[in-house]
Design goal:
47% of the residues lie in helices and 23% in strands. It has helices at residues 2-59, 109-115, 139-151, 156-166, 224-230, 232-292, 300-332, 344-354, 379-395, 454-464, and strands at 72-81, 84-94, 120-130, 172-178, 190-195, 200-209, 214-221, 340-343, 362-369, 374-377, 400-410, 413-420, 468-472, 475-481. It has a five-stranded mixed sheet with strand order 9-11-12-14-13, with helices on one face. A four-stranded antiparallel sheet has the order 4-7-6-5. Strands 1-2-3 form a three-stranded antiparallel sheet, with helices on both faces. β6 (200-209) and β7 form a beta hairpin. It is rod-shaped. The mean pLDDT is 75.
């Protein structure tokens, strides 16, 4: 049995650990997925801010590439390759409106510009770009970005103000990048995820003037708080699942321990019952043997002692069976009460007189009653409660014992306090005395009759009256709510 319990515990703990690890791995992947979703959303918001910023720049005055008589134009030298076109330069400038645009497309384009009246050549940008390799290259867009940068230069202050509105309070930083020595071009924006999984940083690099290799880098931090808010439902669900599994494991372990304790109690109960029933059965066997001897039956004094011993042992046997029957009935269904009004004082006095006092033991009683003890309760159960407590006070004491019975009725609460100067109960065992089949370990004589059902039966009857019972060292106190008598 012990080996099976250990195996169940190991398997349960291993299953719980695997489930927790599985949930952790799932949450980790969900966190990474959430970071990617945040990266996509931040990318979209940054590009929206770029579009708004460009529209603001386009609305500003155009000192160079603007006006009715100064249209913007662009042209690129290019050569056809087997798999596409290769661009070698872009020329951006302004020209008078009276110059035919078709003439600008002829060979010797730069000379035509210089020869044309009112023409101003702004810039000639030489590059080597293959359309077959640089799929994102768009010379029209690149030329427009260049024109916009000349007309309205890109500024961090204006872009940051637009970006702050789009990012809705998310922490970010911007940095302008420019590299004249770099021979490569960046035509479109790039987005990347840096940092840790729990504190990621989204980095967007946008080329606002790719022909001059001018870019802006936006770094947006995703705070753990924002990440937790996005994963709130998943985290709560996972925590609830783990909590539910932990509760199930706890209840399983608790049930196993309870079953183990019940098994120990059963073994202890069987051993105790064998020991307790063996004594009256053995005594009755001796009495029967005495009755079977015709010569000994003629001794009247001996006859009376044997009959008295037989009656006493039969009473003990009957008491054991009565308690077992009461506890079995109580386990099968709720204890039924037959409530009536009666005076408690005469009942206590009658129980004191009927209490069996073992031979050779001196027992003295002291009572304290309030003026009125007219209560409404089950008289049979109340009598059983007091009788069991008095019996324990007599049984678990020395050669002489003084028992105090204090009954008080105040504010419809009945308090019964029974104290004695017996052997007492260690503090470490006081919380167990109301358990079934439990007997204290400090008994001076282990041969004292008893199967550990008395106090558990008392507690059952007290709780049936919606009361409570407690014990403090040598004092047992019962508090019962009693309905007032009409």
């Amino acid at each position: 049995m012990e080996q099976r319990i250990k195996i169940v515990w190991v398997i349960s703990l291993a299953a719980m650990l695997l489930i927790v690890l599985g949930q952790g791995y799932w949450l980790w992947n969900q966190c990474r997925y959430t970071n990617e979703k945040c990266m996509e959303e931040i990318h979209r918001q940054v590009m929206e801010a770029v579009a708004v910023n460009d529209s603001i720049r386009n609305s500003l005055p155009k000192p160079m590439f603007g006006g009715d008589n100064a249209p913007f134009f662009h042209y690129s030298d290019m050569a056809q390759e087997p798999d596409g076109w290769k661009y070698t330069r872009i020329i951006v400038g302004v020209v008078s409106a009276d110059v035919p645009f078709s003439s600008l497309l002829q060979p010797g384009f730069a000379d035509s510009l210089r020869a044309a009246g009112g023409t101003y050549l702004c810039d000639t940008i030489r590059l080597s770009v293959s359309a077959s390799k640089d799929k994102d290259f768009n010379y029209l867009r690149a030329a427009n970005d260049y024109r916009l940068q000349v007309n309205a230069p890109f500024t961090r202050q204006r872009f940051d103000s637009v970006l702050a509105v789009r990012l809705e309070g998310m922490p970010f930083t911007t940095e302008l990048l420019s590299s004249a020595t770099d021979t490569t071009y960046q035509w479109t924006e790039t987005v990347a995820l840096h940092g840790t999984t729990l504190a990621p940083v989204v980095e967007v690099v946008y080329p606002y003037n790719p022909l001059k290799r001018e870019r802006v880098r936006v770094s947006v931090s995703i705070t753990p708080h924002a990440l937790l808010l996005r994963m709130g439902g998943q985290l709560v669900g996972s925590l609830l699942l783990i909590g539910l599994l932990a509760i199930c494991l706890f209840l399983q372990v608790k049930t196993i321990l309870k079953q183990r304790r019940i098994d120990e109690l059963r073994r202890s109960f069987v051993n105790t019952m064998i020991h307790e029933l063996k004594r009256p059965v053995q005594a009755l066997k001796m009495c029967v043997a005495f009755f079977n001897d015709k010569a000994m039956r003629t001794d009247e004094r001996m006859m009376d002692e044997v009959v008295s011993d037989s009656v006493s042992e039969l009473d003990n046997l009957s008491a054991y069976l009565q308690k077992l029957r009461d506890m079995t009935r109580a386990d099968d269904r709720q204890t039924q009460l037959s409530v009536s009004s009666f005076d408690l004082k005469p009942m206590v006095e009658r129980l004191m007189h009927l209490q069996h006092i073992p031979e050779g033991k001196q027992v003295s009683f002291e009572t304290r009653f309030t003026d009125s003890l007219l209560i409404t309760a089950d008289p049979v159960h109340i009598a059983n409660i007091i009788s069991n407590l008095i019996e324990n006070a007599v049984k678990y004491s020395g050669p002489s014992v003084h028992i105090l019975i204090d009954c008080a009725l105040q504010n419809h609460l009945l308090t019964i306090r029974i104290s004695d100067d017996g052997i007492g109960i260690p503090p470490s065992e006081q919380g167990k005395v109301f358990d079934k089949f439990y007997r204290a370990g400090n008994l001076p004589d282990r041969s004292l009759p008893g199967i550990g059902l008395g106090l558990s039966y008392v507690k059952l009857l007290v709780e049936a009256h919606r009361g409570r019972i407690s014990l403090s060292s040598q004092v047992a106190m019962i508090i019962l709510p009693i309905r007032p008598t009409l």
